[in-house]
UniProtKB/TrEMBL annotation:
GO terms for molecular function: ATP binding; metal ion binding; nucleotidyltransferase activity; RNA binding. Residues 266-384 form the HD domain. Its cofactor is Mg(2+). It holds the Pfam family PolyA_pol. The lineage of its organism: unclassified sequences, metagenomes, ecological metagenomes. It comes from freshwater metagenome. Gene3D superfamilies: Beta Polymerase, domain 2 (3.30.460.10), cca-adding enzyme, domain 2 (1.10.3090.10). GO terms for biological process: RNA repair; tRNA processing. PROSITE patterns: HD. Keywords: ATP-binding, Magnesium, Metal-binding, Nucleotide-binding, Nucleotidyltransferase, RNA repair, RNA-binding, Transferase, tRNA processing. The keyword Nucleotidyltransferase applies. This is Unannotated protein.
């Protein structure tokens, strides 16, 4: 690499470090005082050059982990050593979090999910084991003059916006198959392309992802999905065969279409819905994992419910029900938390509900039930439903948008009048037991269910009317359970 490129990389990285990570130099001073080297490495160097450095910094050092721990104790406000077995000690000072890892030279067994860690003796050896050239650059901070180290021309690949491996792609992905997903993720995050050798290796080695734990796959997929352009990464996963291994429901959306049975390309539709949902995320405060998962998965029930209609056309009856079940199963297998699973399942199950609204024929009772069933996910459901309109017919799209505007307006009005977000029976359990003179048990639950149905149908009743209705229900119920009179 030319001196000009070395100087450019160093200056770009240093300028960003000075502006956005002033604590890096003090950490370098602490290591240098103990006779050790310290270099900023990997993603932070890449991001510093791109001018997008965050508050999480990665460093590499020739100090062994116990020495690193001692130094960090004197520098950081808090430290943790959960990764010390892999040579990493972390610390936090102010808003800056650092991870310092001893030079490593890893060896992978053929079927191992994790490397056997061996400490290396040079930063070049450490960089050679990294995933991609754009992450195999370092800025040595303990030299007399900060030294930019780029043995694999990562700065060239940054300029070309290409993702390439330091060693052969086959060796890199054999060492750690998760790197194949990372390639797709970086393509989405950075708007980069994959080197042809990388794509070829991913296609040939997609099956090797099976040795990676569900948790690691999930975490990498979440990063991809929350990137600025998830379409790019999802497309790579589908075209290389990785999606078939980790999320097979997505490539299965590419349904075959014959000349007599026309319908939307469900795969393309789903990606478009994802993008249109992302465009509305400001209503949720920014990137939202639950909305993005629901948008991507909302139609995964279609392949299993597809029915060709004689004479032309295709139906997908109850695909929302089937899709909700499939989404729950897949997210469980990927080890998502229960809250996320339940939320996505709910949204997929409800995503067609709006289409019964027509031109606004729903009763207030139907609107209340829509709000109740969505619960805390009401805004998510609004955005998903709006995003699900991908028609190219401008008049149809405008009409659907206008109708949904009217539904949101009705919900807002009822919210103001009835506190829809807090729908509950007009009497509580204690009041029911006192009025009916019964003890806690199933009868109380049935009484509250009856009152809730009244509330949904009629809106707030008030305590007096609720008591009257409950007493009449109780009397009628008691009569219906009496044995018939004997003649």
């Amino acid at each position: 690499m030319s001196n000009e490129k070395i100087n450019l990389g160093r200056e770009l990285a240093l300028q960003t470090l000075v502006e956005r990570a002033p604590l890096a130099s003090s950490l370098a001073t602490a290591f240098k005082a103990k006779g050790f080297k310290l270099a900023l490495v990997g993603g932070p160097v890449r991001d510093a050059i791109l001018g997008r450095l965050g508050n999480d910094l990665d460093f590499t050092t020739d100090a062994h982990p116990l020495e690193t721990k001692k130094i960090l104790k004197g520098w950081a406000e808090n430290i943790w050593d959960t990764g010390i077995a892999f040579g990493t000690v972390a610390g936090k000072r102010g808003d800056t979090t650092v991870e310092v890892t001893t030079y490593r030279s890893e060896k992978y067994e053929e079927d191992s999910r994790n490397p056997d860690v061996e400490y290396g003796d040079s930063i070049d050896g450490d960089l050679s084991r990294r995933d991609f050239t754009i992450n195999a650059m370092a800025l040595e901070l303990t030299s007399e003059v900060p030294e930019f180290i780029d043995p694999f021309n990562g700065i060239d690949d940054l300029a070309k916006k290409i993702i390439r491996t330091p060693a052969s792609a086959e060796q890199s992905f054999s060492d750690d198959p998760l790197r194949m997903m990372r390639a797709a993720r970086f393509a989405s995050q950075l708007d980069f392309s994959l080197d042809e050798e990388v794509v070829t290796a991913m296609k040939e080695m997609a099956g090797r992802i099976s040795i990676i734990s569900s948790e690691r796959i999930r975490d990498e997929f979440v990063k991809l999905l929350l990137s600025p352009a998830p379409r790019t990464g999802i497309t790579i996963l589908v075209e290389t065969g990785l999606a078939e291994m980790i999320l097979p429901e997505i490539p299965q959306l590419q349904l075959e279409v014959d000349e007599h049975h026309h319908h939307k390309d469900v795969y393309e539709h789903s990606i478009t819905v994802l993008e249109q949902a992302i465009a509305q995320e400001d209503r949720l405060g920014g990137a939202n994992l639950i909305l993005r998962l629901a948008a991507l998965l909302h139609d995964i029930g279609k392949p299993k419910t597809r029915n060709l209609i004689p004479g032309g056309g295709v139906s997908f009856h109850h695909h929302e029900v089937v899709g909700a079940r499939l989404a729950k199963k897949r997210l469980k297998e990927l080890r998502f938390d229960n809250e996320t699973i339940e939320a996505v399942e709910t949204l997929v199950a409800l995503h067609l509900r709006f289409h019964g609204y027509g031109e606004g024929e729903w009763t207030d009772s139907a609107v209340r039930r829509y709000v109740r069933d969505a619960g805390e996910l009401l805004t998510h459901l609004h955005l998903l439903t709006r995003a699900d309109c991908t028609t190219r017919n401008a008049k149809k799209a405008e009409r659907l948008s206008r109708i949904y505007d009217s539904l949101e307006a009705r919900i807002a009005t009822l919210m103001e009048q009835e506190e829809l977000s807090k729908i509950r029976p007009d009497l509580d359990g204690a009041e029911v037991m006192a009025l009916l003179d019964i003890k806690p048990g199933a009868e109380v639950g049935k009484a509250l269910d009856f009152l809730m149905e009244l509330r949904m149908e009629n809106g707030p009743l008030g305590k007096e009317r609720a008591e009257q209705e409950l007493m009449q229900w109780w009397i009628n119920r008691d009569r219906s359970r009496r044995p018939p009179a004997q003649n």
